[in-house]
Design brief:
heterodimer; A: mainly alpha; elongated; B: 11 helices; 15 strands; about 40% helix; globular
């Protein structure tokens, strides 16, 4: 049976194909068998550049191909077609799944990319060139040459030439290697750096070696900017998360002076509210799933604010001015809330899916990808901050809150309902914690102990920034984020965390009032 | 009849007495107590809760078939709450107070190390179902998870092979505690024996519960861009895996560029992660839910039915099985066979009877308990993540592999005996 295939294969290689470049035997060989043979057959077929191959390769990537007796079948949407001819077929009972591992997947992806190099759509061609970056070899040189001559867009043509150079740098002819090295100096992709570093070690010719070194330096120079910006972005992103988790606390602890150990659990409630909204959308509005986050944001705010208001009315109100009791009581509440969530939703983490538009990232530089979910959180944190600053600074409620925190008795004398303001302020702080929880559900785990991981961080930010200072909280959050990431790059995540903690301890020793001190007198004290 | 206070009390006493009388025959039938020592709260609850349910399922199954030595099994479930010292306390309570014949429990190596002295002192039995770093061999413990040579080493060898992508540079990434540190020590010395230079190995650790993997991924990208094919070996444990894989997907680090092979990520850990961007990243285990064998179909069905009947959160809608669950299941059945062979639940007699026990594992192979070293002979599977969150097996050993608890890649292990010291 097997030698029959080989005969067919030989025939296929000798005789020019009639209608389809892909024979059923070839399809069968690509789908199953020894991996080396599969790849060999695939590349042989791809070299003929038949676009009819594309659906088959795609089906292989999607693992929708089954094989039986050396024949490949594509099974999709409940229909079965013969892979090579596209004719409907009945799937044999003994059909087996194909195994596509990483090596095969890489070959398949580059096969598709090569086929798309001649696509009439410019965007498709551009994507194909990006896909091919470090996956070209001698076998595909012919097709790349063909595509280069046919290419009309100057930018794409230049990029195709880079691809050619990446192949030619492995050529046996030193002259060709020299031109390739010179051409590659215009690249700014990490794959090129990797390639050049590898070639530098094995290059026998001195002139070519110098050219490779020069190209490498130029590529490095371009890459270093991507790395620096990437570091800045990760720092800002961590800072924005710290800011979100600390903002609510800046109100409840910073302005009201309540040491709220249940702050983390209020975040957790916000995250679970997001989870519930997500499930509702999944079950009742699957079409609008990508928009669930727009409903989840107010839902998370309201859920946490409600819990916060109830807490304030029932427990915290009786403990104003008694920080130790507040601390113990809120800590107890945090345990109760955690166990309640565990009883309702189970001890395991629940899955919150990102909406599709938040998955993936935008490629800014060849070595810099900014993930959409992080960008979204950055913007969200800024919006929450602005809204909160406006609320505290510009509205009547904000005025009352400030009045009550500055001088409770005087505020009461002029007719402010202080107990109502206390409740509203606490609910606002709790609601913002809920918003933070909603944001955290997009980057991390949602589980009953979600809040535990952030409670220390949020207190650190508020204390470092200066209790009672909104601006201080912002500076402290972004500063800690940047510092953490800078140190992490240099000393590793474990040491970075320790160093940040040591820094805060030393800083608070030297300056107990935080970055910004409260000016004037605080009446509550 | 008017109910006065007195008649009410009398009737209440009568009812209580009657209930007591009815209860007596149930107690008269002797049971064998089985301890279940898994965290049902705290950080490890995520992974361990399901193992408790697996033990209960197996006990229900065994009792339905008549129990062991004609006696029913009676589970005693305790919650050590992811608190390592509490594990030792609860273990002592199970053995001394509840008089359990055997305990199934522990996940993290640190919890196992915590209970080990208790089991040795009181001479009781522990079945430990999770892959671990080796470097331990106690007469009182049976290890039904993988030793490094049954998971870590084959996985790295696969990535070095042509099919695995011929990786030349290595990132060893883990959570900062004993299991990842020891595994990476073994791997580093293994890689060196294969001619990998120190400059081509990057070791990184993160604290427990780390949630921000941006910096780490950026570092991996930079390291991978410095020449030669790079692969990442991840021993990240617990729920940190979710943010790690999310970040990996969002930053566009594809498996075809830099494959990540994980030793503590199974079907359960990927629940709730969007696996579409993660297709092709790998995991090495001795069992995958996707393995096609009649034994596995039966196991998955048994679990699905049980999860539905008991309303286990998460599993009642989307039942998942994983490697430690399989190891737990094999362990309890082997223990049953050993007790029946020894005709006693006496610790020493059961230990002697355990040697050479076999069980047709859900993974489709027959697992054998080694005659000497208390570890199972297990096959090794390497799977790639598929879009549906399951693993597709891309490589497997021809048959079960014998465990080497003392890795030959740690120099101090030379001359250590492959069986427990105290016999």
């Amino acid at each position: 049976m097997r030698c029959l295939f080989w005969i067919f294969c030989l025939l296929g290689a000798l005789c020019p194909p009639l209608v389809f470049a892909l024979t059923p035997e070839q399809a069968g060989q690509i789908a199953a068998g020894d991996l080396d043979d599969r790849i060999k057959t695939l590349n042989a077929v791809v070299a003929e550049a038949d676009t009819a191959l594309e659906p088959f390769v795609k089906a292989l990537l999607d693992e929708a191909v089954k094989t039986s007796a050396g024949k490949a079948y594509i099974v999709a949407d409940g229909k079965t077609v013969e892979a090579a001819t596209g004719k409907p077929a009945v799937l044999p009972a003994d059909a087996e799944d194909t195994v596509t591992n990483n090596r095969m997947r890489r070959e398949l992806e580059s096969a598709i990319a090569v086929l798309r190099l001649v696509s009439p759509d410019r965007a498709v061609r551009a994507a194909a060139i990006t896909e091919l970056k470090d996956q070209v070899d001698e076998g595909k040189l012919g097709l790349i040459d063909k595509a280069t001559t046919a290419e009309t867009d100057p930018e794409l043509k230049a990029r195709l030439q880079l691809l050619r150079a990446a192949v030619l740098i492995s050529s046996d002819d030193p002259a060709k290697r020299l031109t390739a090295a010179k051409a590659l100096s215009g690249s700014s992709s990490p794959a090129t750096r990797s390639l050049l570093l590898e070639k530098l070690g094995s290059e026998p010719d001195a002139t070519v070696k110098a050219a490779i070194q020069a190209a490498l330096d130029s590529v490095q120079g371009q890459l270093v900017w991507g790395e620096r910006l990437g570091l800045l972005f990760t720092g800002l992103s961590l800072g924005s998360i710290l800011l979100l988790v600390a903002l609510g606390l800046a109100i409840t602890y910073g302005l009201m002076g309540v040491i709220n150990m249940a702050h983390g659990e209020l975040m957790m409630i916000g995250a679970y509210a997001t989870y519930v909204v997500q499930n509702l959308f999944k079950n009742y509005l699957p079409g609008a799933f990508d928009g669930y986050i727009l409903v989840a944001i107010p839902a998370a705010f309201l859920a946490s604010a409600l819990v916060g208001a109830v807490l304030e009315r029932t427990v915290i109100r009786w403990l104003y001015g008694r920080p130790l009791e507040t601390l113990l009581a809120t800590w107890g509440i945090s345990l109760v809330l955690m166990q309640a969530v565990r009883s309702i939703f189970g001890a395991q983490n629940v899955g919150v899916e990102n909406p599709a538009w938040m998955s993936g990232g935008v490629q800014v530089l060849p070595n810099l990808v900014l993930p959409y979910n992080r960008l979204a959180i950055l913007v969200f944190a800024a919006l929450v901050l602005l809204a909160m600053a406006a609320l505290i600074g510009k509205t009547r409620l904000g005025l009352f809150v400030r009045a009550v925190t500055q001088n409770r008795r005087m505020a009461s004398c002029v007719g402010v309902n202080t107990s109502r303001i206390d409740m509203l302020a606490f609910a606002l702080g709790a609601g913002i914690a809920g918003l933070a929880g909603c944001a955290l559900s997009q980057v991390g785990n949602v589980g009953p102990d979600l809040g535990q991981g952030y409670i220390v961080d949020s207190f650190m930010v508020v204390v470092l920034g200066g209790v009672g200072q909104l601006a201080g909280t912002v500076y402290a959050a972004l500063g800690l984020g940047l510092m953490n990431k800078l140190l992490e790059g240099w000393a590793g995540a474990v040491l970075a965390k320790i160093m940040v903690l040591v820094f805060i301890v030393v800083f608070i020793q030297k300056r107990p009032q935080g970055i910004f001190a409260v000016k004037g007198r605080s009446a509550e004290a | 009849m008017t109910v006065t206070r007195r008649t009410f009390t009398t009737s209440l006493t009568a009812v209580a007495l009657a209930a007591g009388l009815y209860a007596v025959p149930a107690f008269a039938q002797e049971t064998i107590k089985v301890g279940v020592l898994h965290s049902l709260s705290g950080t490890m609850a995520i992974s361990e809760t399901v193992l408790k349910d697996t033990v209960l399922m197996a006990i229900e199954e065994i009792n339905a078939k008549g129990g062991v030595l004609g006696k029913k099994l009676e589970p005693v479930v305790v919650d050590p709450a992811s608190n390592w010292p509490l594990f030792a306390e609860k273990a002592r309570q199970l053995i001394s107070k509840d008089k359990v014949a055997v305990t199934f429990g522990c996940w993290t190596s640190v919890s196992r190390k915590s209970v080990l002295p208790v089991y040795e002192e009181l001479n009781s039995l522990l079945f430990y179902p999770v892959q671990y770093e080796g470097e331990e061999l106690s007469k009182n413990v049976f290890y039904t998870g993988a030793a490094p040579n049954q998971q870590a080493i084959p996985a790295v060898e696969y990535l070095m092979s042509k099919d695995g992508g011929s990786a030349k540079r290595w990132v060893l990434l883990g959570t900062d505690y004993v299991y990842p540190r020891t595994t990476n020590k073994i791997l580093r010395s293994f890689l060196k024996s294969k001619g990998v230079a120190d400059a081509d190995i990057m070791e990184e650790y993160t604290p427990f519960g780390h949630a921000d993997y941006q910096g780490i991924i950026a570092k991996i990208k930079k390291f991978a861009g410095e020449g030669k094919k790079t692969a990442v070996v991840s021993t990240i444990n617990g729920d940190s895996n979710v943010p790690f894989y999310k970040e990996l997907g969002n930053q566009g680090l594809k498996a075809t560029d830099v494959p990540v092979v994980a030793f503590s990520v199974g079907e359960e850990e990927l629940r709730g992660v969007d696996t579409k961007p993660l297709v092709g990243h790998l995991a090495a285990w001795n069992y995958f839910m996707s393995i096609k064998s009649p034994a596995n179909t039966a196991f998955v069905k048994q679990w699905s039915d049980y999860a539905k009947a008991k309303g286990i959160a998460g599993h009642k809608d989307k039942p998942l099985t994983n490697d430690p669950m399989e190891a737990t299941y094999i362990g309890i059945h082997m223990w049953k066979a050993a007790v029946e062979k020894a005709k006693s639940t006496d610790t020493d007699k059961v230990i002697a009877a355990m040697a050479g026990q076999t069980y047709p594992a859900p993974g489709g192979f027959v697992s054998t308990m080694d005659a000497k070293n208390h570890h199972l002979h297990k096959p090794v599977f390497i799977g790639e993540i598929k879009a549906d969150g399951q693993f597709g097996v891309v490589w497997k050993t021809k048959g079960p592999v014998r465990a080497e608890p003392w890795s030959p890649f740690i120099p101090e292990n030379k001359g250590k005996k492959d069986e427990p010291e105290k016999k």
